[in-house]
Amino acid sequence: MSQDQICEHNEYLNNDDDVIAFSADSMCKLAIFKQKIQNFLSNEIPNKLVEFLEHQGIKYMKINQSITDSKGRTHTNIANHNWLKDGKECEILQVGSNGWKKGKIRLKVSLEFIPDEPKIKEIESPLDDIRQSIN
Q: N or C of the chain: less Cβ packing under 10 Å?
């Protein structure tokens, strides 16, 4: 998954020129659909996630991002979308380890198309009757 792509997809969704239809009057190219999903994920989900976690008592979930402007001044803003890109700095203490390990936790999203599989009817064999009579 590249830095600018926050939603993975499976092989059925690779061709952006393919068309996806949810009904006769609701269809669009995959490129548009994937972009709308990505926009929603990067703009809505991280803020809702942080809000939910903080409401559940898990504090300090916002991601502060430092930005330097053209005059060399540093500004800090909230960039919750980094939950999906760079991740949130944290530490983990694993059972059996010697101590805390620093790193980041990142939210990953996957969009998949799962094709319907045709139902395979069992072919009756002329030997089935003989097998049943033996048992």
A: C
